[in-house]
Amino acid sequence: MSVPMKKSMKSLQRNLLIRTTVVAVSAAAVFGCKTTDEINAPIVDMPNPTYQQREEYVANLNECSAYADEVQTAKKAGAGAVTGAAIGGAVGAIFGGSHGAAQGAGSGAVVGGAQGGLQGAEERSRVIKSCLRGRGYNVLN
Predict the structure, then answer these.
(1) N or C: which end of the chain has fewer CB within 10 A?
(2) CA atoms 112, 114, 115, 120: torsion sign
(3) From CA 114, how far away is CA 30, in angstroms rounded?
């Protein structure tokens, strides 16, 4: 391997490592600040609700959340991580050999896991909102 090629590979590996770190820190920042339930909480139009109406809403929200618990968010995150690791490993292997494959698999797993987890959380939120709409609430988001 020529010297310019070695420098190019080192540069590629360094860039891949930096990207992996940025993705990991970004995912931690996004998922560490608020729970997905807080981010995707339903906004319900209830002008001047009585105490009883608020109590009924809380009971309905809890029942709808129980239905949403059937969404397998962790499985979606795991499947995303596996898929991301496979794709990232393959791309890393093409550009950086076995070392690049390991780094690519790591960054792919982080990105894929985060994406799968986010998709699961979004699906869970849709279930809650749909359930509330089915119970007669005017859900605004």
Answers:
(1) N
(2) positive
(3) 10
Using alpha carbons, list the distances in angstroms from residue 72 to 28, 32, 121: 20, 20, 9
Asked whether the beta carbons of 93 and 76 are under 8 A apart, the reply is: no
pTM of the model: 0.56
What is the rounded CA–CA span in Å between residue 6 and residue 76? 38
Tens of pLDDT, residue by residue, the chain (141 residues):
555 555 565 666 666 556 656 555 555 555 554 445 556 789 999 989 999 999 999 999 999 999 888 876 666 666 666 677 677 767 777 776 766 677 777 777 777 667 766 777 888 888 999 999 999 999 999
Spatial CB neighbours of 135, under 8 Å, sequence gap ≥ 6: 60, 64
Q: What residues does each domain of the chain span?
A: 3-134
